[in-house]
Design brief:
The complex is a heterodimer of chains A (271) and B (353). Chain A is mainly alpha-helical and 271 residues long. Chain A has 12 helices and no strands. Helix content of chain B is 25%, strand content 34%. In chain B, strands 6-7-8-3-9-10 form a 6-stranded mixed β-sheet, sandwiched between helices. In chain B, strands 13-12-11-14-20 form a 5-stranded antiparallel β-sheet. In chain B, strands 15-18-17-16-19 form a 5-stranded mixed barrel. In chain B, helix 3 packs across helix 4. Classes of the chains: A mainly alpha (271), B alpha+beta (353).
């Protein structure tokens, strides 16, 4: 009994710790302006949906959501296509120096973004891609590839070699074996990676801030941070907008949760 | 019906030479088995035939066609794997149909063929199931079905029975034999189980450390093993070995642990040190007086008879004794074996003489 209570107590504590900032943001979004910087009250005394109305009226929220959706979707698709092909090679084909290649790929993500941002900015400007979706899609794809390749390589490795070899003997070229057999069997890994890459692109701030200059390409984090206020930072609107843009992510994760957990390979080989 | 020919085939992985030089012809329509302990290189041979593994040196022919540079698809082989390797996201029907679909066979042909194969191996009622809903034996049959559906030139089997339980293994063994007699497709089989090799094959090749030790019919390999490795590996329980030496040449007299033997063997030199091999199933241990006295070490019931391990002048021998006979460890007993039914090996080279 004590054990169980302790477990739920710890669970609640962890949950509060993780969800705390989001919860606070939610509370803030419901407070009228004059209550925003006051504690107490912790909970709004006269809750209001004013902020939720004003973000759609006073700010180009729909446009920046569109920008983010396009950028994150294209990044995810590109990163998965390139990443899965690379991962297939590393997991199932005879490639020399696999460990070295994987290490090298990982090293890409070791550079702090701030260190690479000036050269990247120059490249983007030279290519004439400033303030475009493409600038962000290319950058995000590059920086999410190590993640995609690593996660997918591990998922592909879990498909038994004999299944791949069986497909080869049954008349598949390596590429056919990849998309007819390995890919469907790694669907959970694919979905997991897709969600991770999508969230990364959805939330990225530094590159988005640097490469965009107008609402033509500005993504959500930058768009929200740059909400114009008249005499002060519009915390209420920012909070409301943050809540709104988190909803798609939550829906995404819940929608695919079962897919992520599902073990498709059960029964493939003995056992 | 394709003949498979190896010409000086070598396989090296890194620093390790797995196959040292294979010269061999597997006849068209033959059931040929590579048998050997784990890690002897037999699966590598199979993968080289399938085209899943390139040869380091040498040539492989199917009939007159050099297949070294052909992909598995172009070689037209089918393979059954130890782990079945079914496609878990497809139904039994789709699993069996897969090789034909890859050949872009018309839908009606695929359907007819799948149903024909399913009835041959008794899977008609399971076609809509997924592999994970099947028992081990059923999965094995799906793997077989997938292999036979496109009537390949060559059938490759990599320890297909070792994941099955004992009863199912014997059943499936008979099934394989029946299928081979029906289809008459060249079959190359790999196993570490000598009993499987003996019962299925037209010919077997015993592999050890990347080399063929002996390649012959099961009967020849059993009766005339070419060296002590083959003698110890083929037959269960393994052959008894007793040190001996040549006492006289004309007529031949071999002193074997104090007993004089004169088997029909080749041409030993006087004084040559030998190893005499005696099959356990040829040795009788009993309490009836005979010239070889032994001490019982342990006995093991095998149903209709008992295996008895005895000490004969410090050499441990296994033989057969009557199930009724009550023998305990430490008891005295007597041993008999047909003196001409032994094989002799040179103690130095380990080769049969």
């Amino acid at each position: 009994m004590i054990k169980k209570t302790g477990f739920y107590f710890l669970l609640a504590l962890t949950l509060l710790y993780c969800a705390g900032p989001l919860l606070w943001q939610f509370i803030t979004s419901l407070k009228p302006d004059h209550e925003l910087v006051m504690i107490p009250p912790i909970l709004p005394e006269s809750p209001t949906v004013d902020h939720y109305v004003s973000i759609f009226k006073g700010h180009p929220l729909m446009r920046i959501i569109l920008n983010s959706t396009v950028v994150a979707s294209f990044t995810t698709v590109l990163s998965l296509i390139i990443g899965s092909l690379a991962a297939f090679g590393l997991a199932k084909l005879k490639v020399r120096y696999k460990a070295l290649i994987l290490g090298f790929v990982l090293s890409v993500s070791m550079f702090p973004p701030i260190a690479t941002i000036s050269p990247l900015y120059i490249i983007i400007r030279t290519l004439g891609l400033r303030d475009t979706w493409l600038a962000l899609i290319i950058t995000y794809t590059t920086f999410s590839l190590p993640l995609s390749i690593w996660v997918l390589t591990n998922f592909f490795r879990e498909v038994p070699d004999e299944i791949y070899l069986a497909a080869r003997v049954d008349g598949c070229t390596p590429f056919q074996a990849f998309y007819k057999i390995i890919l469907p069997l790694s669907a959970p890994g694919f979905v997991t990676t897709a969600i991770l890459v999508f969230i990364f692109s959805w939330n990225e701030f530094l590159f988005a801030l640097t490469f965009t200059s107008t609402t033509a390409s500005r993504t959500i984090p930058v768009g929200i941070a740059l909400f114009p206020g008249i005499h002060e930072v519009p915390w209420g609107d920012i909070a409301a907008a943050s809540i709104v843009v988190t909803i798609p992510l939550i829906i995404l994760v819940f929608a695919f949760q079962r897919r992520i957990i599902e073990g498709l390979t059960a029964g493939a080989v003995k056992g | 019906m394709a003949e498979i020919r190896f010409e000086r085939v070598k396989k090296v992985f890194g620093d390790v030479t797995v196959i040292k030089g294979l010269d061999l012809t597997i006849n068209g329509g033959e059931f040929f088995t590579f048998v050997g302990p784990s890690g002897c290189g037999k699966s590598t041979i199979l993968n080289m035939i399938a085209g899943l593994e390139p040869t380091t040196e040498g040539k492989i022919y199917f009939g007159d066609v050099l297949v070294n540079d052909l992909s598995p698809k172009e070689r037209d082989v089918a393979m059954v794997f130890q782990s079945y390797a079914l496609y878990p996201h497809m139904s039994v029907y789709e699993n069996i149909a897969f090789p034909l679909r890859m050949k872009k066979a018309p839908r009606e042909t695929v359907d007819i063929e799948v149903r024909r194969v399913a009835s041959t191996i008794g899977l008609e009622s399971l076609l809509h199931r997924r592999p994970k809903e099947l028992s081990g034996g059923q999965r094995q049959r799906v793997a077989l079905g997938r292999a036979i559906i496109r009537r390949p030139k060559v059938f490759l089997m990599d320890e297909p029975l070792s994941n099955l339980d004992a009863r199912l293994r014997v059943e499936t063994r008979a099934e394989l034999k029946r299928l081979h007699q029906e289809l008459k497709i060249t079959t190359v089989y790999v196993t570490h189980d000598q009993a499987e090799a003996m019962s299925l094959s037209d010919r077997i090749a015993v592999i050890h450390q990347g080399e063929i030790q002996q390649c012959d019919t099961p009967r020849e390999v059993y009766l005339r093993p070419s060296n002590t490795f083959v003698a110890g590996f083929i037959g269960s329980p393994p052959m008894n070995f007793v040190p001996a030496s040549v006492k006289k040449r004309e007529p031949l007299e071999i002193i074997c642990n104090g007993v004089i033997l004169s088997p029909r063997v080749g041409n030993p030199v006087e004084g040559e040190r030998l190893t005499i091999g005696i099959r356990p199933e040829d040795v009788t241990i009993s309490d009836t007086e005979a010239d070889i006295e032994v001490t019982v070490v342990l006995t093991e019931s095998a149903g209709s008879f008992k295996w008895a391990d005895v000490l004969w002048n410090n050499v441990r021998i296994r033989g057969i004794s009557d199930i009724q006979l009550d023998m305990k460890a430490g008891n005295k007993a007597f041993m008999r074996f047909p003196r001409d039914k032994v094989v002799a090996f040179d103690a130095e080279s380990k080769r049969r003489i």
